[in-house]
Specification:
With 301 residues, the protein is α+β, with helices and mostly antiparallel strands. It is built from nine helices and 14 strands. It is globular and about 50 Å long.
Length: 301
């Protein structure tokens, strides 16, 4: 089936799969790794890195539900039961209910999307996601008139996700989008990466991907979607509203209180390369800037 959206990235721009799963490369980047340069808004190809073993690749990750240590998710996420999996869609919808993951995938148009990915910690990559437009899922449930926001919730199962036994965040993890953001064709629900199912420590079996926002907005292991007329609470905003706003758009002109957002380090780039200038809306300004016309983005950060 033909793709419904085409971008300026190709497979040559993709961060190697080994690098994406290996957050050790990321932390090395904080110590001095550089990034590929920008040419006319197009990312240069990330260099190939020496592949790591599967054990090494999966032992460094961030998913606080499985522990705050970088090696915890890779060690602990294997206990997560992802089949069967049900997603509850409720609130202001015509057809509320519990939707089986298998049924959802059968009804959706699954395609590959090559997206830039920008973390609030000022590192970046390019990822080939496999998934479907969130709009299609919301249309299946039927959005009622008056709905303005979409709220998301991660699985809460402390017997498997032992990190939820500790008050690192107010569990379960929750996120939200304005309805027009959720219905935008760039917003997808990802079920795979690199042609494979998403590993459990990376958000299996389904996560949100909003490429013009910082990565923490892309909530993992979703079990509930609620349509509402009120702005929903989000986990990091509840934890520290001074540092994490509701919108969390990639914006090089609005710094995080503890570091600049003007530049970023590309994961997998040459260790001696210079930092790369961060693009407004992560390079998707042409597609999404109209969503925020007239808004003070330093206030609505």
């Amino acid at each position: 089936m033909a793709k419904r959206w085409v971008n300026d990235l190709t497979h040559a721009d993709v961060t190697p799969r080994n690098t994406y799963l290996n957050r050790r490369q990321l932390m090395a980047g904080f110590a001095g790794a550089g990034v590929a340069s920008m040419l006319g808004g197009r990312l240069q190809a990330a260099p190939e890195l020496e592949p790591n073993t599967w054990e090494y690749i999966t032992q460094y990750n961030n998913f606080y539900e499985f522990g705050t240590g970088k090696g915890d998710p890779g060690k602990n996420a294997h206990v997560l039961t992802t089949d069967p999996w049900t997603v509850t869609i409720d609130g202001m919808v015509d057809r509320p209910g519990d939707y089986a993951m298998g049924d959802i995938k059968e009804k959706m148009t699954i395609e590959e999307r090559l997206y830039r990915f920008r973390c609030v910690e000022a590192w970046s990559m390019v990822v080939p996601w496999n998934g479907f437009e969130l709009k299609d899922l919301l249309d299946m449930a039927g959005v009622k008139e008056g709905a303005k926001y979409v709220a998301f919730e991660t699985l809460y199962r402390p017997e498997e996700m032992f990190g939820q036994k500790y008050p690192v965040l107010d569990w379960p993890y929750v996120e939200g989008l304005r309805l027009d953001e959720a219905m935008h064709p760039l917003t997808i629900m990802a079920t795979g990466i690199y042609g494979r199912d998403i590993p459990k420590q990376n958000g299996a079996p389904m996560r949100l991907v909003v490429p013009w926002k910082y990565g923490f907005k892309s909530i993992k292991s979703i079990v509930k979607i609620t349509l509402t007329d009120k702005e929903p609470a989000t986990s990091w905003n509840k934890s520290n509203p001074r540092e994490y706003g509701f919108y969390s758009n990639v914006n090089p002109t609005v710094d995080h209180p503890r570091w600049s957002q003007a530049t970023e380090r590309r994961l997998g780039a040459n260790l001696f390369a210079k930092r790369e200038e961060t693009l407004m809306f992560n390079g998707y300004e042409k597609e999404v800037a109209s969503l925020y016309e007239g808004m003070d983005l330093s206030k609505h950060f």
